[in-house]
Specification:
Layout: H1 2-33, H2 37-43, E1 51-57, E2 60-65, E3 70-75, E4 83-88, E5 91-96, E6 107-113, H3 120-128, E7 135-140, E8 156-163, E9 186-192, E10 198-205, E11 225-226
Antiparallel strand pairs: 1-2, 2-3, 3-11, 4-5, 5-6, 6-10, 7-8, 8-9, 9-10
C-alpha cells in the first residue's frame, strides 16, 4: 500500500513540475510577443492627440492638427485681437470672435487626401467637379502666399480653378467652375511636393488675420505648413 502511495505522490509531483514548466514557457512566449508599451506610446504620441494649441511667445500661438497634418501660427491677445481657432471635420476655421461669432463665416483651411499617383490638377478637378471643357486648374510652381506676406517654402505649390471661356468678367464667376474660385477675395489650393499625399484649400477672404506678433505683413495662412 505504501508503494502505491509513493508512486502516486511521485506522479503528482512530476505533473506539477510539468504544469509549472508549461506555464513558465507560456509566460515567456506571451512576453516575447507583447509590444513594448513605452515604445508604442512614443510612436503614437501624435495619433493620440487630435490637435494642440500652444503659446509660442507672448501673444503668438501655434495650432497643430495631428489629425489633418497641418500647423500654423496666429496672434491672439484675447483683448484687442481676439482670434479663435476651431476644427470641424476636415476644416480648420480661424476667425475674430469679436467680429464674427460664427466660425463657419471665418477664414479656413480644408485638407484633402490625395493618391500619390494622381496629379494635383486631376485631384482638384475631381474634388471640385469643375467642368474642364469650360474651366482650368492652373498650378503655380512657387506658392507666394497672399497679401504682402512672404512666400512659402520652395517645395510649396499653389493652384487655382478659373474660367477659360472668356465669357465671364470680374467679379462674375463661371458656375461650371465650382465655388472654389476666387473673385474679390483670396483663395487658393496649396500642396507641399515633399508631402504629396494631401493638399488643402485655403480661404482667406478680404482681410488679414496676423500670423506673427513681430511682423504685420505675415498673415496666418502664410505660416501654414504640412506635417
Amino acid at each position: 500500500m505504501k508503494k502505491f502511495i509513493f508512486v502516486a505522490a511521485v506522479l503528482l509531483t512530476a505533473a506539477g513540475c510539468s504544469n509549472a514548466t508549461v506555464q513558465q514557457s507560456n509566460n515567456q512566449t506571451a512576453s516575447n510577443t507583447q509590444p513594448d508599451i513605452s515604445q508604442v506610446q512614443n510612436i503614437n504620441t501624435d495619433a493620440n492627440r487630435a490637435s494642440e494649441d500652444v503659446v509660442v511667445r507672448g501673444t503668438l500661438h501655434r495650432y497643430t492638427s495631428y489629425k489633418l497634418g497641418v500647423t500654423f501660427t496666429y496672434v491672439n491677445d484675447g483683448q484687442q485681437v481676439n482670434t479663435k481657432v476651431k476644427e470641424i471635420g476636415d476644416t480648420i476655421y480661424v476667425y475674430y470672435a469679436d467680429l464674427n461669432a460664427d466660425p463657419l463665416k471665418g477664414q479656413s483651411i480644408q485638407v484633402y487626401k490625395k493618391d500619390l499617383n494622381t496629379s494635383l490638377e486631376t485631384a482638384i478637378a475631381n474634388q471640385t467637379k469643375a467642368d474642364l471643357s469650360q474651366c482650368e486648374v492652373k498650378v503655380v510652381d512657387q506658392a507666394t502666399g497672399d497679401f504682402s506676406g512672404p512666400a512659402f517654402p520652395s517645395t510649396y505649390v499653389q493652384a487655382f480653378v478659373s474660367d477659360k471661356t472668356g465669357k465671364y468678367s470680374f467679379p462674375e464667376l463661371n458656375p461650371s467652375c465650382s465655388h472654389y474660385q476666387a473673385s474679390n477675395s483670396v483663395a487658393y489650393f496649396l500642396m507641399d511636393k515633399n508631402k504629396p499625399d494631401k493638399y488643402a484649400y485655403v480661404s482667406v477672404g478680404q482681410y488679414a488675420i496676423l500670423g506673427d506678433d513681430q511682423n504685420e505683413s505675415v498673415d496666418w495662412a502664410s505660416t501654414i505648413r504640412f506635417r
